[in-house]
Amino acid sequence: MKRLIYTFLFLGMILGCSKTETAPTPKPTADFSWKESTNGTVQFTNTSKNTDTYIWDFGDNIGKSTTQNPSYTFELKGSYQVKLVAKNAVGESIATSTVNITTGKDLAPIANFEITSLGKGQLQFVNKSKNADTYEWDFGDKSTISKNENVSHQYPANAKYTITLKASGKGGVNTKALEYEITDIPIPEQRDKFIGTWNRVYSISGQSGESKQSNISITKSSLKSDGIVIKFSSVDTWEATIKSDEISYNDQEYIGGGAFVYFSGLGKITADYKTINLKGTYKFASPSATPSNTTEVWTKQ
């Protein structure tokens, strides 16, 4: 009986020792390589280990794939951060690589800039454009176009200006415009720009033809604290007040026989201070007379 028991114990030990244990699943390791061909097409080679499913993100906010070894075409040149997530039953692993595309389409330029005031009408323009290599600045004051990348510019008068930057590159042309108001040029500096000889042309509604008064001279002595006073004669006075790029004026001119004509109105000064456009009223013989509409253009000689 004892011999029989020992025999069963011995067989049980043999059978127990021959049982096979399953090895644990290894963790995944993600990895890949890539090669660009033509027209922005890239072949990706998956070199991950211990993996069975894959998620690709090609970094252009468009392309994704679950193929093991995908081929993908990038539309535009540039650098893209490509990510591979490789998984198995026990986890996942992530690999990333910067893919530089040299055979796709050129990126379209994006024009952008910032403005900083340097005081007294001088502005600094900092170019923030992308994908561009040539530039054109229009400062909005009829001055010369600049082709520098970053520029500063002195404006002639307090006024609103529209600054436009055109940025060009292999991918095309793009423009950006910003409006900026200059308010820090002292009035005396603006006022001094009126010094010189001007040609004046005015017309009165209801009257045929134009009346011209040429070679009006504005000198330093014509200037006042906030504008201009011009004495055409001992009794003829043209007076204007300057505020930013606007001008308000009153004009009294002697026509003989003790009578005067009276002009008054508002106008705009061009940014280069070479033209004044005025609109107002004309009254004959008396300040209380029925007014007629009038326009004036002053052009600096």
Characterization of the model:
This protein has 301 residues and is mainly beta. It has 3 domains: 27-101, Sandwich (Immunoglobulin-like), CATH 2.60.40; 113-182, Immunoglobulin-like (Sandwich); 188-300, no CATH class. 7% of the residues lie in helices and 52% in strands. The protein has 2 helices and 22 strands. The protein is rod-shaped.
Percent of sequence in beta strands: over 45%
Order of strands side by side in the largest beta sheet? 15-14-22-21-20-19-18-17-16
Number of strand elements: 22
Low-pLDDT sequence parts? 7-11
CA(first)-CA(last) distance: 138 Å
Helix content: under 10%
Helix run count: 2
Radius of gyration: 41 Å
What is the N-to-C order of secondary-structure elements (H for helix, E for strand)?
A: HEEEEEEEEEEEEEHEEEEEEEEE
How many structural domains in the coordinates? 3
Q: Which descriptors would you attach to this protein?
A:
single chain, 2 helices, rod-shaped
Q: Topology of this structure?
A:
Elements: H1 2-17, E1 32-36, E2 41-46, E3 53-57, E4 64-65, E5 71-73, E6 78-88, E7 91-101, E8 113-119, E9 122-127, E10 134-138, E11 151-154, E12 160-169, E13 172-181, H2 187-191, E14 196-204, E15 211-218, E16 223-224, E17 227-231, E18 237-243, E19 246-256, E20 259-269, E21 275-284, E22 292-300
Antiparallel strand pairs: 1-2, 2-5, 3-4, 3-6, 6-7, 8-9, 9-11, 10-12, 12-13, 14-15, 14-22, 16-17, 17-18, 18-19, 19-20, 20-21, 21-22
Summary of the model, kept short:
The chain has 2 helices and 22 strands. The protein is mainly beta and 301 residues long.
